[in-house]
# Entry
Amino acid sequence: MLYATKIKMKPSCSYSQNLLEIDSIYIEGCRNPGFFKKENLHDYLKDNPGSIRVNIPPYPNLIPATSVYGEKYVRSTPDIYKHDDLLDLPRV
# Structure
């Protein structure tokens, strides 16, 4: 299983709570762990649904999403509070 463990935000968006302002996500559990652009993860998850989880209990799956402007991004399956756990990962 692959896990998202850190996020890197776009410049000047360090404290943002907007998923669209995530630049890249650190993925562990693969041959070459590292930061991957959200657009690339979006495409990967289209072909491999359920293969990446956020490394925060209850370990929700990452899922591909597209903004109203056509921007590809990823989000986690919502918890009971409708909060996206992806935004709670450490930021670098």
The chain is about 10% helix and 35% strand. The mean pLDDT is 95.
